[in-house]
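Per your request, structure below.
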């Protein structure tokens, strides 16, 4: 009897945890950069406001560039790239990932 209760409780906990993660997906904290667009390695993602020249950002390339990179096996289609901000017009209004 106790065994059945424990199995039921574990199954319920797993269903609740899975549903919670699907409904509220976690935001990535670490991003690995495999391309040469910035030094290869791990980058910690954080929101920083306001952005300034010299800051590095994780961003998605335009669709055509993402398809090209995926076709040539540089980066997967749904993977952001790390880029350095070199210019801003007045104030950098960039939306974080």
């Amino acid at each position: 009897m106790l065994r059945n209760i424990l199995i039921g409780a574990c199954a319920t906990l797993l269903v609740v945890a899975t549903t919670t993660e699907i409904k509220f997906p976690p935001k990535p904290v670490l991003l690995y950069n495999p391309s040469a667009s910035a030094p290869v390695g791990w980058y910690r993602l954080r929101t920083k406001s306001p952005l300034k020249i010299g800051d590095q950002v994780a961003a998605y390339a335009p669709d055509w560039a993402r398809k090209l990179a995926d076709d040539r096996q540089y980066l997967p289609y749904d993977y952001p790239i790390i880029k350095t901000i070199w210019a801003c017009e007045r104030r950098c209004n960039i939306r974080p990932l």
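DSSP finds two helices and four strands in the chain.

Regards,
D.
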